[in-house]
Amino acid sequence: MALVKKSASEVVDQEERKRKRDCGSLAHQLCDRDPSTRRWAARDLADCPDASVVLVKQLRREMDASVREIILTTLTRRGDEEAVAGLVECLRSEDASLRNEAIEAMKLLPVEVAPIMGELLSDPDPDVRIFAVNVLESLRHGKVEEWLKEVIESDPHVNVCATAVDLLGEVGTPFSREALENLKARFPDQPYISFAADIALKRILAN
Amino acid sequence: MKRILIVDDAATVRMYYRFILEEAGYQVMEAVNGIEAMEKSLQEGSFDLYIVDVNMPKQDGYGFLRDLRGREELLQAPALMVSTESAAHDRTRAYAAGANLYLVKPVKPEELLLNCRLLLGEVRP
Amino acid sequence: MAELIISKEDFLKFREFFYRKTGIQFDDSKRYFVDRRLIERVEATDSGSFRNYFMMLRFEASGDEIQTLTNLMTVNETYFFREEYQFQCLVNSILPELVKRKTDKSPIRIWSMPSSSGEEPYSIAMYLLEYWAGINQWDVEIISSDIDTKILNQARRGSYSQRSVGNLPKSLLTKYFTPSGAEYQICEDLRQAVEFTRVNLMNAADVRGYRGFDVIFCRNLLIYFDDLSRRQAADTFYDALHPGGFLCLGHSESMSRISSLYKARKFPDSVVYQKPMEAR
């Protein structure tokens, strides 16, 4: 027995080529019983028009983590309106991993997500507002610091503010100085808020 | 010296816990999510206590605890789960995943220390 | 112009950001190392200040700067028996576990990528021949791929510098190489042991046929990818592996910044990643 070498063409498994790869059958294969088939369908749907709707639909009921991951990657690569809407829906899911996966995907779509940020930051659900602040981490947008400043000035929920302060430590400027100092007065009984605000102030005023 | 692993994706939160726990004489390491927490546990040897956030990228706190509890090769250290959610069903889910105690953020220093000491067997409940 | 200095607060800010993105942690002793490289990049990008540079780094759509910076912060030379502990893990732990599970005599298939100039796949071949008793009972196929056809040709030729073979025990150098001018030519047996193929990991059509592998080595490649591409690569490897197959990343790389699909496994020589046995 030994080290053996096949030729390059033998290296590659020919079987996959048998499957039909038009968009209609792919959508169908997305619901196949075999996760491997679903994974390949999710990959190949990347270039099919109108695929985001069917991908989002499958995402909501997909139990296999490996298929979910590929659906999310494909949705992120597509980044169209339906994909983004589908991801936003996932923020409200009961499933912690689906929520967090959606946040991650949205972080990779800063341009597409920017238009709805304002809306998400004023969502009635504080958890959704926290997730929205999480997404701001990767957003290249003139208003990011302004949004964070607004959050710490007026959001009633301590954890939404806490998440915003964490990010201000990284992207904040003297523009947010006063708001950070006032934040400590807004939540006088929260040592964490004082701690976090002080860190952010130190970073902002360092130079 | 007892070793505590802080698992949270927010850098400021990790700094805060580190500050409190080091002051109290514990050795602290950090991880940003469940996967890194597992890698560090396997590489560095088991920890004496885990402080675990819920919402983290790649692997959340529930996923990490389930993985940890399923591994015979790791010492089953107690886990303090800390979350922004306060609804009752999240607490149940935390215990089902393998947490020993559940706290709601933001955590006060005394609260953190008392609960850690409790789980480390350093104080009577 | 005044000399640029990185303040302590800026260093901490950068350190947290870099750790979050790559998993690489710099302790305080690395201050000088990190500051020097940051200053170099601030100047090279004409950013004018660390603050401007940092904002650019954070938000740049292409991710080119973080890639350049990561390159600077990590050692990326290739040479024979680099990160040898993983080859030890292969023969001491991974292969024994794999053969125990095998129900037939089909070859064990190993994929090494990127091949670069071939040091890694040839190292694997040498290690198997020298240190794995099982090579006498089992066939092993080694496939090694790269996107760059020039480097693939270089790998196929198998001619190496002193620097490249420097980490090899003298006995192996003598056994498997012939000096040729200032270089060392790898022997025909080893050249024949590895199949080099051209693959763009990000191209679905290229990778579709890569299935049925038992072990994949992908070391010091993903760390230079952006987040989405890294994930895509991990997903590709997932389908390329048999259930229970193993994936080895570079020593400063971690699945924690990539994907949750794999199970971390600790062996005496290394922590590696495994596609779950139950996976389909």
Number of domains of chain B: 1
CATH level-1 class of chain B: Alpha Beta
How are helices and strands ordered from N to C of chain A?
EHHHHHHHHHHHHH
What is the average of the pLDDT values of chain A? 91
Q: Going by CATH, what is the homologous superfamily of chain B?
A: Response regulator
Structural summary, described in words:
The complex is a heterotrimer of chains A (207), B (125) and C (280). Chain A has 207 residues and is mainly alpha-helical. Chain A folds into 2 domains: 21-108, Leucine-rich Repeat Variant (Alpha Horseshoe); 115-207. Chain A is 68% helix and 1% strand. Chain A is elongated and about 65 Å long. The mean pLDDT of chain A is 91. Chain B has a single domain, classed as Rossmann fold. Chain B has 5 helices and 5 strands; from the N terminus they run βαβαβαβαβα. In chain B, α2 (34-44) packs parallel to α3. The radius of gyration of chain B is 13 Å and the shape is globular. The two termini of chain B are 22 Å apart. With 280 residues, chain C is α/β, with parallel strands linked by helices. Chain C has 2 domains: 8-73, no CATH class; 84-274, Vaccinia Virus protein VP39 (Rossmann fold). Chain C has 12 helices and 10 strands. In chain C, β4 (177-180) and β5 (183-186) form a beta hairpin. The interface between A and C is large, with 39 and 51 residues. β1 (3-4) of chain A pairs parallel with β2 (140-146) of chain C, so a sheet runs across the interface.
Secondary structure elements and pairings:
The complex is a heterotrimer of chains A (207), B (125) and C (280).
Chain A: E1 3-4, H1 8-11, H2 23-29, H3 35-44, H4 51-61, H5 65-78, H6 81-90, H7 96-107, H8 110-121, H9 126-136, H10 144-154, H11 158-171, H12 177-186, H13 191-204
Helix pairs in contact in A: 2-3, 3-5, 4-5, 4-6, 5-7, 6-7, 7-9, 8-9, 9-11, 10-11, 10-12, 11-13, 12-13
Chain B: E1 3-7, H1 11-23, E2 27-31, H2 34-44, E3 49-53, H3 61-69, E4 79-83, H4 88-97, E5 101-104, H5 109-119
Parallel strand pairs in B: 1-2, 1-3, 3-4, 4-5
Helix pairs in contact in B: 2-3
Chain C: H1 8-22, H2 31-44, H3 50-59, H4 64-73, H5 84-101, E1 108-112, H6 119-131, E2 140-146, H7 149-157, E3 159-160, H8 162-165, H9 170-176, E4 177-180, E5 183-186, H10 188-191, E6 194-198, H11 204-207, E7 213-218, H12 227-240, E8 241-249, E9 263-266, E10 271-274
Parallel strand pairs in C: 1-2, 1-7, 2-6, 7-8
Antiparallel strand pairs in C: 3-5, 4-5, 8-10, 9-10
